[in-house]
TrEMBL record:
Protein name: Blue (type 1) copper domain-containing protein
Domain of life: Bacteria
Pfam short name (any one): Copper-bind
Keyword terms, alphabetized: Copper, Metal-binding, Periplasm, Signal
Signal peptide: 1-23
Origin species: Ralstonia flaminis
UniProt keyword Signal, yes or no: yes
Location of the protein in the cell: Periplasm
Length: 165
């Protein structure tokens, strides 16, 4: 009986870890967030421009609205001007909501994804991202409670003008 309970607990833990890795965007298995519309990791040698994004304890990003051209590779400098840990994660609305839920359940979760950076107070991190499709790509702080408090923003990806990629 006890052996079955241990086996069941072990299997439940494995299933939970698999779901957790999937929801967190773990790239070990080539997971691409299920939505190529957000773009792809960028090549730092091909950065078009740098955008500074401040993350504050008021649970806001500044700027919260960013406009880029399709095909641009952007270096986001995520600056934590607050006194608590913040992060910037690019994703689809569904991915951000699912990931925020996982962060509430597992607040110690660390990220190793190209579309996210976790930044301690007073520190700066970066994301280099290439926007491959026109549309809106959202971003948010998925530290427990921050996303729900309104710490989110959007990147408007405009169709590239003639002569640009």
């Amino acid at each position: 009986m006890q052996r079955n309970l241990i086996r069941s607990a072990f299997l439940a833990a494995l299933l939970s870890m698999a779901a957790f890795a999937h929801a967190s965007g773990n790239h070990a298995g080539g997971h691409d967030h299920g939505d190529a519309a957000i773009g792809q990791p960028g090549d730092a040698t091909r950065v078009t421009r740098t955008v500074r994004v401040d993350m504050a304890d008021t649970m806001r990003f500044t700027p919260a609205q960013i406009t880029v051209q399709r095909g641009e590779t952007i270096r986001f400098l995520a600056i934590n001007s607050g006194r608590v840990r913040h992060e910037m994660t690019l994703g689809s609305p569904a991915d951000l909501i699912a990931h925020a839920e996982q962060m509430r359940k597992h607040p110690e979760m660390e990220h190793a994804d190209a579309n996210a950076v976790t930044v301690d107070p007073g520190q700066t991190g970066e994301i280099v991202w290439r926007f491959t499709q026109a549309g809106t790509v959202e971003f948010g702080c998925l530290q427990p409670g921050h996303f729900e408090a309104g710490m989110r923003g959007a990147v408007e990806v405009q169709q590239a003008r003639a002569g640009k990629s």
